[in-house]
Amino acid sequence: MSEIKKVVLAYSGGLDTSIIITWLKEHYNNCEVIAVCGNVGQKDELIGLEERAKKSGVSKLYIEDLTDEFVNDYIIPTMQAGADYEGYLLGTSFARPILAKRVVEIAKQENADAVCHGSTGKGNDQVRFELAIMHFAPGMKIIAPWREWDIQSREEEIDYAEAHNIPISVNRENSYSKDKNLWHLSHEGLDLEDPGNEPNYEKEGFLELGVSPVQAPDRPEYIELEFEKGVPVKLNGESMKPSDIIRKLNVIGGTNGIGIYDVVENRLVGMKSRGVYETPGGTILYRAHEVLETITLDKRTAHKKRELAITFAELVYDGQWYSPLREALSAFVTSTQQNVTGRVRLKLYKGNIINAGVWSKYSLYDMSIATFEAGGDYRQSDATGYISIYGLPTRVQASMERKSSDASEAGLCG
Fold first, then answer.
1. Which of 73, 84, 108, 152 is most buried (CB neighbours < 10 A)?
2. Per-residue confidence (pLDDT) for residue 171, from 0 to 100
3. d(CA 56, CA 52)
4. In which element (H, E) is residue 78 found?
């Protein structure tokens, strides 16, 4: 341990990373600790962060604005893929690779001996952080305190913080494990660990990005989103960059009770875990993009894309963002987005997203063919020949089975 003189810590200012600073100094010969906080949209959590970090004992704090890179290079490609993990829109999963990447860059810049993260030994994030670190710095030493120390719970973490006069922003009654960024907010722990407990959505302070559908307005709200090649470019007719669209959709969606998801998911490390996610803007964006693809993608591409979305989501969830397969799948997805350009109207009402119109100059929907009215370009009589040819294998199979059955019966009679 004596060779560890300087450590770069992935720092959020939360309970875990706050006590880790003191713990590192205690267990690694009073090493220097440099904290790196990646701003991926958790703006309100950055207030007072520098003061807390200095009081906790860091020698230097980097606060890196990664928001647009996070949106453009991680969120949008995942949304274009239509990837979700068991319904979860991957808010924590694709934030970890970009954070780890920046931590490694600063560790190299500072000539650090090791990097450190605060992910628990039961969670997925330890894998996501460390695979990304291995990708950018294969020989870098990684310190994971949760796999080394004797602390076993958040209660014991709070005890440690109080004993060492470490400033923390949580209390014992409301110390949910949370992760927040521009895309989402997750809640785990406490009463949520029992899947039989209904989350108290109406309790003040539980939801942070919006309100319960019960508390949402009793009138619908319409929005329009425009995309160019699968990238959102306008909201309600106003041009803006994707990160600003997500910010505004978070407000609109949160107001209308959109994007609350309660799930028992299958963690990478082999256990099931219960969490509540708030993803108001992301849920709207996914739906709008999906609706636009219904008229701009052909059947086989759309179906194959949906199959591959499961693999894409598993790769992101499992920390394989920088893997060759994820990159190859993203290349496929990008090729499918060339004609995903158009406008989508949605109606939001008490947690529901209702389709209210879709338009595209690349639409494959042809009303003259699809219409039930007389005339049109589709001749219904043509279906006779199509069904005859399409059904040929069925007739051949049935004929063979009948002949085989007849032969068997004749043999038995003989």
1. 84
2. 65
3. 6
4. helix 76-81
Rounded to an integer, what distance in angstroms lies between the CA atom of residue 169 and that of residue 100? 24
Neighbours of 182 (CB within 10 A): 22
Q: Which two tokens stand for residue 140?
A: 């870098």
Contact 169, 27 (CB under 8 A): no
Contact call for residues 25 and 143 (beta carbons, < 8 A): no
Residues designated catalytic? 16, 96, 125, 177
Would you tell me the crossing angle of helices 15-27 and 154-163 to the nearest 10 degrees? Answer: 60
15 touches 168 (CB < 8 A): yes
Helices (H) and strands (E) in the chain, counts: 14, 14
- pTM > 0.85: yes or no: yes
- pLDDT band at 405, cuts 50/70/90? confident
Q: For 160-173, b where at least 16 C-beta lie within 10 A, e where not — what string? A: bbeeeebebebeee
How many Å apart are CA 118 and CA 145, to the nearest integer? 7
- Cα separation, 266 vs 273, whole angstroms: 6
Cβ atoms of 282 and 252 within 8 Å: the answer is no
Q: Of 360, 386, 198, give the one whose Cα is nearest residue 295.
A: 360
Please check whether residue 256 is in contact with residue 250, taking contact to mean a CB–CB distance below 8 angstroms: no
Length reported for the chain: 414
d(CA 362, CA 296): 6
Closest CA to 256 of 223, 296, 294, 301: 223
**274-298 mean pLDDT:** 98
- Whether the pLDDT of residue 412 is over 70: the answer is no
411: three-class secondary structure by DSSP: helix
Residues in Cβ contact with 72 at an 8 Å cutoff, skipping those fewer than 6 apart: 242, 243
The secondary structure of residue 8, as a DSSP letter, is: E
Reported as a single tens digit per residue, the pLDDT across 311-325 is 999 999 999 999 999
Question: Distance between CA 77 and CA 88 in Å, rounded?
Answer: 16
Q: Report in angstroms the alpha-carbon separations of 370 from 118, 364, 367, 374, 376.
A: 56, 11, 5, 11, 8
Q: Which two tokens stand for residue 86?
A: 């068991």
